[in-house]
Amino acid sequence: MPRIVVDVMPKPEILDPQGKAIVGALPRLGFDAFAGVRQGKRFELTVEGEITEAILEQARNAAETLLSNPVIEDVVNVEVVAD
Amino acid sequence: MSSELPLIGDYSPATGAALSGARIGVVTFPGTLDDRDAARAVRLAGAEPVSLWHADESLQDVDAVILPGGFSYGDYLRAGAIARFAPMMSKIVDAAKSDARLPVLGICNGFQILTESHLLPGSMIKNDHLKFICRDQVLRVENNNTAWTTQYAAGQEISIVLKNQDGQYIADEKTLDALEAEGRVAFRYVGWNPNGSRRDIAGITNEAGNVVGLMPHPEHAVEAGYGPDHTGTDGLGMFASVLTTLVGGTK
Q1: Reported ipTM exceeds the 0.90 cut
Q2: Do B72 and B166 touch, CB atoms closer than 8 A?
């Protein structure tokens, strides 16, 4: 079934407490190459049938109104993924 | 909504019998935890609590509304994000913005719902230390002219319960500056910032002063013997304040 992927990230200027905790844990496991981590969200919207431009537009609107909060997050990607 | 009689302490309403006609709605969403406590606080302040269900569309002619704490819709997606789209919330948003300026108090998850509904600016993210926190918290009343704070003195320090995981209040610098300049910071953390909130902000109000949101829980500090330090009733002032507001009274 075709999917639309929406990626949401915390805004760059906002400290990401979860990412900060992860970056602290990485070197303890020997992963010492990483200076920073930011944790975001990935949504997969499945569609029955073909993904039209209208459906993609709906996904963009949903991304801005429900899937993200513009005060703290940016929608960084909305794309169609073929299976 | 029934609210049981208190077990100990002074049960007499804080306000006169003349105010007892006020009806204050308490909204229950799936995952709300503190609706019973909020209803109890309303009762103790001398008003009648009215249970409002998130999926209903009638405000039942209530005089004010409380959005209580909890984890509405499991806090999935973001705290308060899905509750915002409940039919009851649409009614509350309209009533809060109407000429009647329905008084609305959002506590903890209720505050998060108010920011997601754009009735209040900013947002809450995870506490900077990443842990759930539960403690007695001292707040300073920065604005005692809102619908929910008139019974406090300006600058008064109160001690109520704080309990949350996503309590870090954030907004951009421009918004924060505007909040400060317009006196819209209603409550500030004193002594210790428990979650990394910008400028120690614990609660804010809208421009009209009828909508107030705060992370700590006034409804858990309304009965002698149960509040912070087992004596605190500092939260009762918020519920008494709205009654004063509703009868058009002043301090």
Answers
A1: no
A2: no
